[in-house]
């Protein structure tokens, strides 16, 4: 069943991921885009959630803005979550499950500037793809570290 667009007056959360090195925009640009979406649909912004700590952002627990936002969304404090792009979300399975549970339990709608309303099936597929990408990336990092360690162990010390 497709997600319907929340009506005017609905409560919205804005999620912003704080890394200015992404091509789709720094924090202030993301915030402006998301606010414009809320204004255009006449949604009331109930909160803005900014994750800036790259290491902690991937956890999705209550110490992150995503975790706090998902917690509040699961308790019915918003009907829509606005973000610039799905790529702004962490790729960890635990972080994504927080958001997925909010969508499943309360029917909160995920809205992106790039794709509009994100259907649950689309989000589920994106979750699987990003988790697989993360596993491949982690494997490559571990393999690279192992090669470097081996290289350092076999390189004679300079005299």
TrEMBL record:
<feature type="domain" description="Resolvase/invertase-type recombinase catalytic">
    <location>
        <begin position="10"/>
        <end position="154"/>
    </location>
</feature>
<dbReference type="InterPro" id="IPR050639">
    <property type="entry name" value="SSR_resolvase"/>
</dbReference>
<protein>
    <submittedName>
        <fullName>Recombinase family protein</fullName>
    </submittedName>
</protein>
<dbReference type="Pfam" id="PF00239">
    <property type="entry name" value="Resolvase"/>
</dbReference>
<dbReference type="InterPro" id="IPR036162">
    <property type="entry name" value="Resolvase-like_N_sf"/>
</dbReference>
<dbReference type="InterPro" id="IPR006119">
    <property type="entry name" value="Resolv_N"/>
</dbReference>
